[in-house]
Amino acid sequence: MTTPILKAAVHIEHDGWRAKNRDVVSTCQKAASSAWISGRKALRGDHPLFGVPDGPVEVSVVLSSDSVVHRLNLDHRGKDRPTNVLSFPGDLNGPAPGAEILIGDVILGLETIEHEAAESNKTLTDHMCHLVIHGVLHLLGYDHASENDAKEMERVEVDSMASLGLQDPYETGS
User: Fold this and answer.
1) Which residue, among 109, 132, 126, 170, has the nearest Cα to 36 in the 3D structure?
2) Tens-place pLDDT, residues 85-131
3) pTM metric for this prediction
4) Which end is more exposed in the chain, N or C (fewer Cβ atoms within 10 Å of the end residue's Cβ)?
């Protein structure tokens, strides 16, 4: 089975993203594609994207600010604070045969990600890649609600990061 190519549409809503990494669009596209490839390998047979989708597949990655992410987090999750990444799944069962399948949206908040990267002694780009991967995996149905689910999701995240030549995001002491 060949893996269909994922198109990652990257939208920059906060100019700070481009100031931090002039290749931010292609970097996000590579991270999303890596998550798509690694994540689909481990999908269960009952997932709508387990087989070869009948149509092109797209994800939207929005590079935004903490204020936007804060509002979305409050409106959709009831949490009155910004967070690093939010994922909003698309309708995987709804498109007509051959129509584009939007697996969903991944929204990142710059200020929180900058703070976390500095705090954990990681580059902003590496941390951003990890969070794009994390968000795409949520869209594929991965979760970290239980310890077993978290271990599986982390394993796929580590594989995705490694395929990009990046370090394990869960390594400590780096």
Assistant:
1) 132
2) 999 998 776 666 667 888 999 999 999 999 999 999 999 999 999 99
3) 0.92
4) N
Domains and CATH numbers, the chain: 6-163 (3.40.390.30)
Helix, strand, coil percentages in the chain from 3-state DSSP, rounded to 5:
45, 15, 40
| CB 125 within 8 Å of CB 25 | no
Only one residue has tokens 């936007």, namely: 68
Contact 63, 17 (CB under 8 A): yes
C-alpha atoms less than 13 angstroms from C-alpha of 47 in its C-beta half-sphere: 18
Sign of the Cα pseudo-torsion (15, 20, 26, 32, in order): negative
Question: In this structure, what token pair is assigned to residue 11?
Answer: 């939208």
Residue 97 in contact with residue 54, Cβ under 8 Å?
yes
Quick one: pLDDT band at residue 54, thresholds 50, 70, 90? low
For 29, the 3-state DSSP assignment is: helix
**Contact call for residues 53 and 108 (beta carbons, < 8 A):** no
